[in-house]
Specification:
Length: about 300
Amino acid sequence: MKGQGRMPAAVRLVEVGPRDGLQAEKTPVPTAVKVALIERLGDTGLTTIEATSFVSPRAVPQMADHADVMRLLRRRADVAYPVLVPNLKGWEQARQAGVSEIAVFISASEAFSRANLNCTIAASLERVAAVAAAALAQGVRVRGYISCVLGCPFEGHVAPSVVARLARALADLGCYEISLGDTIGTGTPGATRDMVELVAGEVGIGRLAGHFHDTYGQALANIHAALQAGMTVFDASVAGLGGCPYAPGATGNVATEDVVYMLHGMGIATGVDLDKLRAVGDDISRHLGRPSQSRVARALAARRAA
Ligand code: HMG
Ligand code: MG
């Protein structure tokens, strides 16, 4: 890891709780609860909220109400609501739902690609190319995800050069931003910074976002390392909800409250009201019947109770 980089004045956060956070929940979360969650998140100052996914309802039953979520959602003009789309079938349904942004996803490991998408990395790039072309032709923005950028649950080590090649491919397909996912949370700060710098050398740091999971307690440290490498966009999930159904052992995404607290403490603006965000996180955690995974939310709750 090299020396301390300059910290940015502001960071954009991409809230993924309603999709990445809820997708693995076994008990169906009522559509009205999801819609209220997304709307309240929009009132906190977040400007990008991933709302749902148009994946197979057999594969991910929790997201089966995607069309209803998008129909009932009162969309704010100052918030983007990307939805995850795996293939042309999902794109057609997302298009009918009137989305203005989609997210496509591939993996940096062959084994995870088979588990998550039932195809090779090369085949997934072909699928994504078709989806991206169809969406861009309709004026719909396309965000890209690469999973397992710092480790795979089946293959272990993932070479940063593979991530860089795939990021190049997604950029060439027209993805305006590429989110680098440490899906199983095994990354550490040195590896994060080296990987981010290598990938940025391929597509530019301004096109990259970081998507860290806190499974090994490394997420905030990894975000800090990525900040030092010049990254200014991070995905996070309110109350630390989530885990990928196809990544054994993957726990929650880094909690948005924790990221906001750290960034504000560093003097980096996010535009997010932490009090409002904490209240939203506490309410969805209460609905799910378990404590918030946000350390900041828990500490603030303990302070209020004292
Ligand atoms: P496939 O096996 O190639 O599908 O891929 P297929 O075309 O052979 O179709 C199989 C069946 O699924 C058919 O139904 C299709 O109609 C149906 P049948 O004829 O057997 O009744 N189907 C669909 N139905 C509705 N909507 C669709 C759709 N596509 C196929 N869009 C596929 C199947 C991979 C698309 C499917 O298995 C799927 O949707 N899987 C879910 C993948 C997923 O949601 N994974 C989690 C999200 S990724 C993630 O969490 C990681 C990330 O957050 C980053 C990180 O955390 O690091 C992004
Ligand atoms: Mg995730």
